[in-house]
């Protein structure tokens, strides 16, 4: 197999090794980090991760829904595959 | 009645009797490389070109647009969607 | 006699019933607040289904939304109930 072909969906992830990817997770979380390793379950090791958590608060007076995001930095992270919704590799010019 | 008393009919794969060329596998063959809508169980929709998919319904999409409640929220060059989140894959006009 | 089991009840496999629904309208109730009605064109051993002329119903706090889809491959893993020959929630008889 040549390096740049995507025949299986997981090839897309394989091509993103050592690159910074975006991961949408269950529970309104999003990660951005460098993909060090993954397996067939989409368990992953990410490095230099920025985690974004989105929460909705309801204003007690106006009942308006307020979207709040909080971010934190994690140097190294194991991601359990069953929490993963979507993985997006960096834009490649190919 | 006939199928209940005939052991051979009980043993054959159920879907083998269709012969219309419209099993899930046939559909996937026909829709590869075409624009599709992928709807997740969370009601989020992804529109893009179906690059490939596997037996878990893991999906690789190109030129992906993310719609939440019908509003475009995000775009991704490539996207890997983990199959357990997928509700359906639909063909689209245009 | 021909059966390996000495079960006197005529056995029909659940999926044989689904097989008999091919070409007919079918109402699908998903886990969670979603329902679909469509014409069943095919399915596989996981009960992933090909449906045509689909109406999708979604129930939420904001109300019911209805959407038309030409042809879909429905993932079987979140299917809860199948109602053969039904036109779905709008045509079901309340009791």
From TrEMBL, chain A:
InterPro entries: Lsm3, LSM_dom_sf, Sm, Sm-like_LSM3, Sm_dom_euk/arc. This is U6 snRNA-associated Sm-like protein LSm3. It is found in: Nucleus. CDD domains: LSm3. It comes from the Eukaryota. Its main location: nucleus. It holds the Pfam family LSM. One of its GO terms (biological process) is mRNA splicing, via spliceosome. PROSITE patterns: SM. Residues 8-93 form the Sm domain. Belongs to the snRNP Sm proteins family.
Automatic annotation (TrEMBL), chain B:
One of its GO terms (molecular function) is RNA binding. One of its GO terms (cellular component) is sno(s)RNA-containing ribonucleoprotein complex. Keywords: Cytoplasm, mRNA processing, mRNA splicing, Nucleus, Ribonucleoprotein, RNA-binding, rRNA processing, Spliceosome, tRNA processing. Residues 23-94 form the Sm domain. Residues 1-22 are annotated as: Disordered. Residues 1-17 have a biased composition (Low complexity). InterPro entries: Lsm6/sSmF (IPR016487), LSM_dom_sf (IPR010920), Sm (IPR047575), Sm_dom_euk/arc (IPR001163). Pfam families: LSM. It is found in: Cytoplasm; Nucleus. SMART domains: Sm. GO terms for biological process: maturation of SSU-rRNA; mRNA splicing, via spliceosome; tRNA processing. Gene3D superfamilies: 2.30.30.100. Belongs to the snRNP Sm proteins family. SmF/LSm6 subfamily. PANTHER family: SMALL NUCLEAR RIBONUCLEOPROTEIN F SNRNP-F, U6 SNRNA-ASSOCIATED SM-LIKE PROTEIN LSM6. This is Sm-like protein LSM36B. The lineage of its organism: Eukaryota, Rhodophyta, Florideophyceae, Rhodymeniophycidae, Gracilariales.
TrEMBL record, chain C:
It is found in: Nucleus. Keywords: Acetylation, mRNA processing, mRNA splicing, Nucleus, Ribonucleoprotein, RNA-binding, Spliceosome. GO terms for biological process: mRNA splicing, via spliceosome. SMART domains: Sm. The keyword RNA-binding applies. Residues 13-88 form the Sm domain. Its main location: nucleus. InterPro entries: LSm5, LSM_dom_sf, Sm, Sm_dom_euk/arc. GO terms for molecular function: RNA binding. One of its GO terms (cellular component) is U4/U6 x U5 tri-snRNP complex. It comes from the Eukaryota. Plays a role in U6 snRNP assembly and function. Binds to the 3' end of U6 snRNA. LSm subunits form a heteromer with a doughnut shape. Belongs to the snRNP Sm proteins family. This is U6 snRNA-associated Sm-like protein LSm5. It comes from Gracilariopsis chorda. The gene is LSM5.
